[in-house]
Amino acid sequence: MNKNKFFTNAVYRNPKESEKLSLPLRLRSVGHYEVGIPWRDRDDIVKDFIQVFWGIEGCAEFTIAGEKYLLQPGFATYFLRMERHFIEAKSTLWRYRWFTFDGPLADTIMESFKLPREPFHVGPCPETLFNQLAAVLKDISPSATLRGSALAYEILTSLQDNSSLLEESGNSLVERFVETVRENFADSSFSVSAAADILGTHRSTLFRAVQKKNGISPVNLIMNIRLQHALELLMNSSLTLKEICIKTGITNESYLSKLVHASTGMSPGRFRKRGAVS
To answer: Can you identify the CATH homologous superfamily of domain 3-168?
Structure first.
């Protein structure tokens, strides 16, 4: 996308009108941006409001609390009050919606939703709601100000609800992950990132689902499945350690020996003999 063709549209509240009502959460601004490489927002000025972003098309890199994350379509993220905003488009077209809010209880309300700090999957953007936010900001009546606060809260609630739905569907995701691992573990290059790509999900989403259901990380789950098959081959075949490594995706014989000993307290050779005896 040509830099001159970037599209940005934002609506801001009338400060004098918002002061007429004492609200715990006050809608401040809303926007619809269509930008792309090399667009960036590298603002060294801390901002005294909370800003929520919802990806629609393309992607961008966000630096949040010192960590870099990719915001993809169907994912949301946010900056808290007094955080510096570091954003950089990573595709030729990045389309997203955003809104900001403040108020005496803005921080408390945002914290109450317990949303992840990294970008999290929430599904398609409710663009109709964002259009309604823009409409109420253009209306300076007290009733519109109240409606704006209610709409902002509704969007925050939808973020939480969609995030919860993701957790509820986590069992299905984990089951598909385990199946994918069983189909690909023999490939030594197979990784959590590769599994996430196959499943069409974000690496952090997969991590949370697996950790929640199994109590271990996806990396450890992959290694456990590899080790399980390695132990079965030690007991039920005459394959060499090198051949077992090739069949299980374990990088080398030394690492295989280390895994077997950590799991059984025995060397691979002793474990094989014990298996043969039993």
So the answer is: Regulatory protein AraC (2.60.120.280)
